[in-house]
What does this fold into?
Amino acid sequence: MMNNTAEYSGSTEMDNNSGLYTLNITSPKLNLKVNVPLYGFHSAHNVFVASAIANHVGLKKSDLTTAIKKLLPSKQRLNVTKYKKMVLIDDTYNANPDSMIAALIVLDSINIFPKKIGGSFRRYV
It folds into this structure.
């Protein structure tokens, strides 16, 4: 994070083949490097914040690591399915411009070519 005087600091590394992030968390209480099983930098950031809070209130490193590894995306929220040389990103639940940008960034980060995009953006009343 930006504030180097914070009790918890974090950094991320993205795997250019999978598009997933590895999260590094450092504090006087915790030194953790874990693969985040959710797509998008925003997901890694959310895991960082939740991990810092959980550790601060007493959750052990081993329990925290286990919990992170079991994370699943919410239905229809940046769900990435890979099949052979295809990738389908399902971000259909209440999509908005920010979530669509995040999905495009994820698509760009996954090392599969060619890339095609299909979808619609409309509001149902």
